[in-house]
Description:
Blueprint: H1 7-10, H2 15-33, H3 40-62, H4 67-83, H5 91-109, H6 114-129, H7 138-167
Amino acid sequence: MNPHHHSSYLNPNSLKSRFTKNFLRSLIKINKQTPFPCRPTEMFQRCHKVKTAADKSLACAVGSRRVWSRAMLCKIRNRALRRGPQKPPSVRRIIINNRTMKKGFNCLKEKMNDDQEAGIDQTSKLRKLVPGGEAMDLCNLLDEAAHYIKCLNTQVQVMRSIADFYST
């Protein structure tokens, strides 16, 4: 067994430990605020709260050192301010917005040749995936994307461990 495998659990300053601490606090808070959902809309709202809690916990664990974490925290704050006491958007509305965005992007692609389209298409997709990526040059975008992927991997490991713990 690798002795370094569990070392992050012992180090309170590791990304995994900071994320776990923040995420578990958020889950406890969500469980206290809302009873277990029985209707589909309640289930969607609860899933949205858990996803937001996971994103916020990850961004807080990273801190302000990274552009993507600052962008993610800013997006979460702005969403909460805009929404206020309202409920999250419906699934249908999200799908309609995605279709609208894709139509506008396809019009731009028709004017480019194949090589330009492939490079710009991949870069623009990456910019959409990395929080704050729209404002970065390509070099910084790749660096932030690599760090973001590492942090998402940590998030998945911790969430899998929590799920395994509660499923046994």
